[in-house]
Amino acid sequence: MKRLATTCLIIPLLFMFFHTSVMAEESTTDILKERKALYEKMEAVTQIPWNIFAGADSYERGIRKGRNDRPQEDGAIAIYFSPEEWAGEINPNKEDTDPLSIQLFGGKGVDGNGDGISDRKNDEDILMTFASHLQKYGTEDEDLKIGLWEYYQRDKAVDFILGHAKIYKTLDSLDTDKYAFPVPTNRNYSYKNTWGDSRGWGGRRIHEGTDIFADQGTPVYATTYGIVELVGWNKYGGWRIGIRDTNNVYHYFAHLSRYEEDMDRGKMVEPGEVIGYVGSTGYGPKGTQGKFPSHLHYGMYRDNGYIEWSFDPFPNLKRWEKQS
């Protein structure tokens, strides 16, 4: 009877968990569809490619994850305008929604959906306001690059946005929520949480990643959709690759024995794509190897629009390992 009662209790709980998971997936899919529809609608009106809107939006969404001075977005779009930017610095009404008075006070906010209101929390108004800035410079590739730089005043922001846009255009989708463990799970490997441990070579410092020990020559996989941002030698990391994902997170792969062919800066990669092979390079001048057992150093860094910092990749690695 106890076993029957326990079974009767577990089955509904499993059903509820499954139902909740399905609902969450459907909700995410709906949001992505809504965003893409908004971008495409703006493209039809402004002639600015939808993927540029998508790239800027995901860049700013990533920024929000790394800062506490910006509120959670109210709608589907994460591009942010402060009340002062929207309504105008000298506007006494910082919540002004009148397009004429906003213009009078030098605010940026415009009416994007034709309802006669410039609402800082309306997705179409936000996108049209952003587009109004870019349109001042033109809609060709170089024009958009200049417009983005003038808007963000940061080279990295332009690179991130154009990289995100490249991924979205290639996939014709906003769904980049797919990840892979960085080495084959059917090979011999081992790792533990070593983030924050002390390191002495080259001076006292902390270990900004997790070491995954594996045989020399074991394939190394891209863990996410991303753009190759860095390829080359570093005296600490040896032969290494850096990949930027659509959340502005930088994925760092070090101590490689060699790269996969055509692994050049600007290349788009997908989760599970071979990017290189495990080695023991580093801790010396170019070509140094064998100073430690072969392993992959895997690090993750978040950018918040101002600075970039390392965070512990171990929880993500455990999750991706289970999903493999």
Automatic annotation (TrEMBL):
Organism: Texcoconibacillus texcoconensis
A Pfam match: Peptidase_M23
Molecular function GO labels: metalloendopeptidase activity
Highest taxon above the source species: Bacteria
Leader sequence residues: 1-24
Name of the protein: Murein DD-endopeptidase MepM/ murein hydrolase activator NlpD
InterPro entries, per the entry: Cell_wall_metabolism_enzyme, Dup_hybrid_motif, M23ase_b-sheet_dom
Residue span(s) of domain M23ase beta-sheet core: 206-306
